[in-house]
Design a protein that fits this description.
The complex is a heterodimer of chains A (144) and B (370). Chain A contains 4 helices and 9 strands. Chain A is of the alpha+beta class and 144 residues long. The N terminus of chain A is likely disordered. Chain B is globular and about 65 Å long. The longest helix of chain B is centred in the middle third of the chain and has 15 residues. Chain B has a 6-stranded mixed β-sheet. Chain B has a 6-stranded antiparallel β-barrel with strand order 15-18-17-16-19-20. A 5-stranded antiparallel β-sheet of chain B has the order 6-7-8-5-9, with helices on one face. In chain B, a hairpin with a 2-residue loop joins strand 2 and strand 3. In chain B, 48% of the residues are buried. The N and C termini of chain B lie far apart (48 Å). Classes of the chains: A alpha+beta (144), B alpha+beta (370). At the A-B interface, strand 4 and strand 6 of A face strand 2, strand 3, helix 2 and helix 7 of B.
Chain lengths: 144, 370
């Protein structure tokens, strides 16, 4: 039942000027981002993804301590319209989750790279980043 | 999606794109799902007014000496008891009593009716009517030559009053009027699918661009906003209005769906025998509304549990009006009473929910109730 973020039948919605892609983050084809912060990798969804989803109203986060594999469904974000799976950009163990967004899901829309982060992983497979896109590659991917 | 090429566009397609709408497939058409966001568009319709492009809907003309008798035979309601200039919500049913489509009949006169059908059923209904047609009845599918806009919300009436279509603003609920503006034929009815007061405005596709523009201008000071099909869905769920293909289908009967009030058993029509039998025997499942007591959004297809599966969700959403998660679904009669608690299975978890009175949303009565 869950859809992916790859909503290709949606036309006329790519406002490229408003699509914010940050330097220093690594992105997946399913529009998650990963950022190394010390021993942890923090995960969220891109500005493009939050804009496609629009009004986020519910978030289901993984349990702390859970082991996840790269590209495995790990969290669920629901907009008014539908539920979307969020895939782990890298493998690892869930170290922390952002409980603020459970109380205020709209934070994912307002600040997808900051206060709208989803969860943080430790014990991450170092090779996993090789599969991800940097800023330039992700921007090119969005324009394809 | 390669299908995009074959999708139909309404006459207002370019306007939607210019307004920045997210466009997606619905009933074979590329339709605006949302312009800004669903919650905002939903609340604008509840508190001010919303403007909808519903040109994907189907319109059929049934004309001729035998029109009234023919319609009476193919719908569950009685078009003979409806006055000229009135609309009637009713159903096509099959021989087993299952719903072929839910429709609105516009009665212009005894020998002239317009039927408004669901976009996703245009082809099916067309074939179904054609297969039952009488000789003294002319049937024409006008779906491609009629555009439909809906103006819905508490300010719909004052907005319409400011326009060249003001004749419509004096209509009573479920009534229609036909007239000409700038040489264009317009039909307006005081109907809708949002749970609010409002109007549906039919005209030619070419003229619909001008109608959209006129309504947009007139509505500016009232806070009118364009509203997409996303909010139309959340609005109709709050108002417990069924959506064909989700809450109704060929296997579901009107009694199960709580639409027994649309049936006149004192006349002959297709499906009457099966429905008469079901009325006597009682139904095996009932359509109920529920609210979630634990965090989770019910969606179509979710299984409803007691100690065993007792039903299935047909529609569900986050409710922008109540900031709660609500749903509609079919359950066995034993768990259909208001206040009954059951569980909704959402992603392998069973979350508590309670049957509540519906519609979830009821329009506030106006000071000058007609």
């Amino acid at each position: 039942m869950n859809s992916t973020l790859d909503i290709e039948d949606v036309k006329g919605s790519l406002k490229e000027s408003s699509m914010n892609v940050l330097e220093g983050l690594f992105y997946t084809k399913t529009h998650e981002w990963a950022r190394q912060e010390g021993l942890e990798v923090v995960v969220g969804i891109s500005d493009h993804a939050q804009s496609e989803l629009s009004d986020v109203v519910f978030i289901e986060l993984p349990k702390v301590g859970k082991r996840v594999k790269q590209e495995e469904p790990t969290a669920v974000i629901e907009s008014v319209k539908a539920a979307y799976d969020i895939y782990a950009p890298v493998s690892g163990k869930v170290a922390r989750v952002n409980s603020e967004i459970e109380k205020d899901p709209a934070l994912v829309n307002k600040d997808p790279y900051g206060k709208g982060w989803l969860f943080a992983l430790t014990e991450v497979g170092s090779d996993d980043f090789k599969k991800l896109m940097d800023k330039n590659a992700y921007e090119a991917f969005l324009k394809r | 999606m390669q299908m995009t090429e074959q999708l139909k566009k309404t006459s207002l397609y370019d306007i939607h794109v210019k307004l920045g709408a997210k466009m997606a497939e619905f009933g074979g058409f590329l339709m605006p799902i949302q312009y800004t966001n669903i919650t905002e568009e939903h609340l604008v319709t509840r508190n001010a007014a919303g403007l909808f492009d519903l040109s994907h809907m189907g319109e059929f003309l049934i004309e001729g000496k035998g029109a009234e008798a023919f319609l009476s035979r193919i719908v569950t309601g009685d078009p003979r008891s409806t006055s000229d200039g009135k609309t009637l919500y009713t159903l096509f049913c099959n021989e087993k009593g299952g719903v072929v489509d839910d429709i609105i009949i516009y009665r212009m006169s005894r020998d002239r009716f317009m039927l408004v059908v669901n976009a996703s059923n245009i082809q099916k209904d067309d074939e179904w009517i054609a297969s039952h047609l009488d000789e003294d009845v002319r049937f024409e599918n006008l779906s491609d030559t009629i555009a439909l806009l809906a103006l819905q919300g508490p300010f719909a009436e004052p907005i319409l009053r400011k326009t060249p279509f003001h004749e419509g603003s004096d209509l009573k609920r479920n009534s229609l009027v036909e007239f000409e503006v700038k040489g264009e034929r317009i039909l307006i009815s005081r109907t809708g699918y949002t749970g609010e007061d409002g109007f549906e405005i039919y005209g030619s596709p070419q003229f619909s661009l001008e109608v959209w523009e006129i309504l947009t201008q007139a509505g500016r000071s009232f806070g009118l906003k364009p509203v997409g099909l996303g909010a139309r869905d959340t609005l109709r769920i709050e108002a417990r209005l069924p959506l064909y293909g989700h809450d109704l289908d060929d296997e579901t009967t009107p009694f199960e769906a709580g639409l027994g009030w649309t049936i006149t058993l004192q006349k002959d029509f297709i499906g009457k025998e099966a429905l008469t039998r079901q009325k006597a025997e009682g139904v095996k499942r009932k359509w109920v509304g529920f609210e979630m007591l634990e965090q989770g959004i019910p969606r179509q297809g979710c299984v409803i549990w007691k100690d065993r599966p007792v039903g299935r969700v047909t529609s569900g959403t986050y409710s922008p009006s109540f900031k709660k998660n609500i749903g509609l679904g079919y359950v066995i009669p034993e768990v259909s009473r208001i206040g009954t608690e059951f569980f909704i299975e959402i992603r392998d978890r069973k979350l508590r929910a309670r049957v509540v009175e519906t519609p979830f949303y009821r329009m506030k009565p106006k000071l000058t109730e007609r």
